[in-house]
Amino acid sequence: MSRFNLIDEKWIPVRFPDGTRDELGIKDTLLRAKEIEAIEDPSPLVVASLHRFLLAVLYRALEGPSDIDEAKELFKSGLPGNKITGYLKTWQDRFWLFDAKYPFGQNPLVPPNEIEPWTKLTAEFNATTNKVLFDHTDTRSPGKREPKECARWLVATMSFSLSGGRGYCPSPSPNAMTCIPLGQDLHETLCYCLVPYGNREVMQGDSAVWEREPKQLPLAGPKRMSSGYADLFTWQSRMVLLEELPGGGISFVRFVAGEGFENPAQHVDPMQAYESGKAYGKRPLQFRDDRGTWRDLDSLFPDGSQLAPGVIAHAIALTRSNPDRFPRSVMILGQANNQAKIEFWRMERFVLPSALAGDKDIRSDIRRLLEVAESTQTALWLACKSYARHLLSRGDRKPEGKDIRGFVSQMPSIPRYWSTLEGKFRALLQSYTLEKKADEIQLEWLQEVRTAIRDSWEQHRLSVSMGDAWAIRALVKAEGPVSKKVKELDASITDFKKSLKKEEST
Q1: CB of 113 within 8 A of CB of 19?
Q2: Per the omega criterion (within 30 degrees of 0), is the bond before 302 cis?
Q3: Domains and CATH numbers, the chain
Q4: Radius of gyration of the chain from its Cα atoms, rounded to whole angstroms
Q5: Which of 359, 354, 361 is nearest to 324 (CA)?
Q6: pTM of the model
Q7: 218-257, pLDDT tens digit by residue?
């Protein structure tokens, strides 16, 4: 018996402008998009995946947009309810979460002996092969979860499944930063992300997972190329079948490897930023556990290199003639893993500089600011390394490199430096308006960086025991790189002040 149709059942968590929250089905979420402020869930992976899922529905329901003109019309007039309603009615039988023939996003042919607890669908709970710190769910007796929860996690597996043994292929880019420019309501947010196909043949050849017949198992070919955005956003990286208990709820699921993604470098995801290098070519930008996301923020801004997220460039194009509707912030979500073990998942928001609404190219400006911060950190790191080496060499000992690195990693100087600058950088982004000069912003940043390195080293100086002659000696020998960098920053600040004063006088 078919049950729990995602078109009408309440399962997508939303927040309204007055702060109230509710859960809606697919149809109400899309038809009421202008009334909804945002999609919200405790899991960043679910939030990102629900946006991608709704975009896939729109791409198929609207059969477009194929170009910027169609996209602008959707942005101006709203999402056409008749097309959305008609499409969902046509495919209503493919959106049953429980169905003998076409269970949504699942495969009814998964063998009954391939059993896993419901936690296998999630990153936030223990699984049989992956333990999560502070989660005490017993995978042998996991309890049961509601269909709406499993529906959200099922969608999340499409975008964030990792590689693993037994032929388990990852989702197209499970570690990439997923970028979502945020509008005043969900309608604007979805329109920002509804990047035109640009090629009608690709648009016509695209399809979503619910429009296709279930794959025969085992798969004849483990990898294939995507047919378009809807296919990409609903990638079946795992073959799953939810097993509903007689009294309702899900405790266990059937779970096997799904489809691998062929040639991801040639299939750009519009919600992701990319980096390019000689060693690895073009690849999605990923979260790194040793640095904050803001230190790579220049990668989000278009500069003609085709490496910035397509959704950012599209949002700029949509609002160029209407700057009042320019997105004021961008949400960055995703996860990081090491050898198929999830290390963290993350959700961050950053201001989108209003200067992007004009023809001003600020990517190079932002990159210069970040390069100054990185080079200054190098000086601080050299000073910390020197201090560690001299301190550990007490008694004519020759410390090994790993001991020095381990000592430096425990020093608070560098984390304090970056922590100080992150808040300053976030505030500085708001300074990038069409009116303010880049040189003025760079001068402010140079002053902040100078203050950050001086304060970080001064805090370290104060932490050194004044009764330990060896530590004092190590401190004096180590502070050369910091002093040199501060002098360089002082010189640059003086030059910028002279240049700005000269401009004002002419």
Answers
A1: no
A2: no
A3: 3-357 (no CATH), 363-505 (1.10.132.100)
A4: 26
A5: 354
A6: 0.92
A7: 887 778 888 899 999 999 999 999 999 998 999 999 999 9
